[in-house]
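Marked as duplicate of an earlier ticket. Keeping the data here for the record.
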Amino acid sequence: MTMQPNVQDDKQAQILDKLNQLKAKLKTTEHIKKDKQQLITLLNAEYQKLTTCRLEQLNIFEDQWNGYLTNQRQSRRTDAQRRREEMERLQQSEQSITKEKPRMATKIEMYNRILVFLDDANMIQILNDDDDDKFSTTMDTSVVVMPTDILDLFWSLDIPVPAVKSEIPLTKQVIQQRKEMAFSSSLP
């Protein structure tokens, strides 16, 4: 990290002290026109020195700022290069992993897996099942809970997921029809 130069350095402090002395001298004493003109000339010279000193400091600030910007750009460039190389390594490793992945299940296999799941009553979790309710209404208020891998199969095959228990038989019929269509279209 760069150090910021002190704005009130010794050279500037000396010039400011001299300026204050000259201003005080100009205010306190009554001088003839020539002496007054000399004091004003001295004041102008001191102000000029102060201006030069401040311009030098400005140049120092600019040099330090430009150096800081150069360092930041370089470090950001190296960081970006490092991240780019890391991303390429990750992409290459992902590509090698995807090449080694087993083949994706066919649609018929996915249909079969869903049907097996829906046929097995032990695998389906039904909440708020009102079959045993003495006061059951005509509305089905049960909720079907399924594992996410089965839900993924429903979504990948674009089949509506049964939300209540009464929708399961209709869903089985839809899956069976689509399975038969997929099987007939796969035959030569």
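See parent ticket for discussion. The longest strand covers residues 125-127.
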